[in-house]
Amino acid sequence: MTPTLGFSCQADVADAVGAWRAYLSSEKRFSDLTLVAYTRDLSQFLVFLTEYQGAKPSLERLAKVSVADFRAWLSWRAEGGAIAATRNRGLAAVRNFFRWLDRTGRMHNPYIGVVEGPRTKRPLPRPLTVADAGTLLEEAAGLPDAPWVGLRDRALFTLLYGCGLRISEGLALNRNDLPDGAETVRVLGKGSKQRQVPVLPAVHEALRAYLAACPFNPGPGGPIFLGVRGDRLSDSVARKQMQSLRGLLGLPDSATPHALRHSFATHLLGGGADLRAIQDLLGHASLSTTQRYTDVDTEQLLAVYENAHPRARR
């Protein structure tokens, strides 16, 4: 899906947007959803400039957009109901476009680098407890009517929890990526970055049970996780299965496939794992991202303290 930009910019900007989108897709390997979001945010910025300045933006006009203009746009987004996180994402998209214009010699704007977005407090990860994670994996196989589908769900959720994978990473695996008994699996993460993740015996056990019951055989190069028609299992179906399971077990709405990845990291940290080792296992580019799990661990520790210490209950 490519938003139409002609109504809100001059031809030179429209051509630049097309080239920028191609760069994000082919070289930066942005996902389709991120590409659509970035394009939409940039389109809204250009619409604002058209109304604010009374003329369709050209590259010459973009070079002259001031700090005050950028702030006026962010205020306009806020008045329209955009939360801080949405405005920050919009600013990131526009900043990415302007910097790309600069690197490619099309236009230079000296102000985009000094514009600050609204401050937001990044929400802490919401992992499952060890007990809830165990219950979810034990009960996953009993939910669907078709036994092999239940074994598939249990294998998938065990993989996410046992290896700390994103759901997209788990569903992208093919059978030759994870042969039976392999000690590690090579995962292709965000930005096409590869990492090696250890595979627990419990993961192999769950996979063996599922593959033995699965009525389809797509071959060694085919996907591990299949839908009921024999094609690769979709993200939406996996999330729906988790939603049904958490409803049945009375788990909170935060019990999502991604929460299993959070649980993997939090439970490793609670067991004494090194923070940098967890960073490598999760594939985080920055240690600061992984350090959020120390905040979760501290928060849980304080909750235990407040519930257990007699002086905390006064």
| Strand-residue proportion | under 5%
Give a count of the beta strands, DSSP E runs of length 2 or more. 2
Oligomer: single chain
Gyration radius, rounded: 24 Å
Q: Structural class from helices and strands?
A: mainly alpha
CATH class type of the largest domain:
Mainly Alpha
The CATH topology of the largest domain turns out to be hpI Integrase, Chain A
Low-confidence stretches: 1-6
- Sheet with the most strands: spatial strand order: 1-2
Number of domains: 2
What do you see in this structure?
There is one protein chain. The protein has a two-stranded antiparallel sheet. It has two domains: 6-114, DNA polymerase, domain 1, CATH 1.10.150; 130-262, Intergrase catalytic core (hpI Integrase, Chain A, Orthogonal Bundle), CATH 1.10.443. Helix 2 packs across helix 5 (84-103), helix 6 (130-139) runs antiparallel to helix 7 (147-163) and helix 7 (147-163) runs antiparallel to helix 9 (201-213). The termini are far apart. It is mostly helical. The model is unreliable at 1-6 (pLDDT under 50). Helix content is 57%, strand content 3%. Keywords: Cell cycle, Cell division, Chromosome partition, Cytoplasm, DNA integration, DNA recombination, DNA-binding.
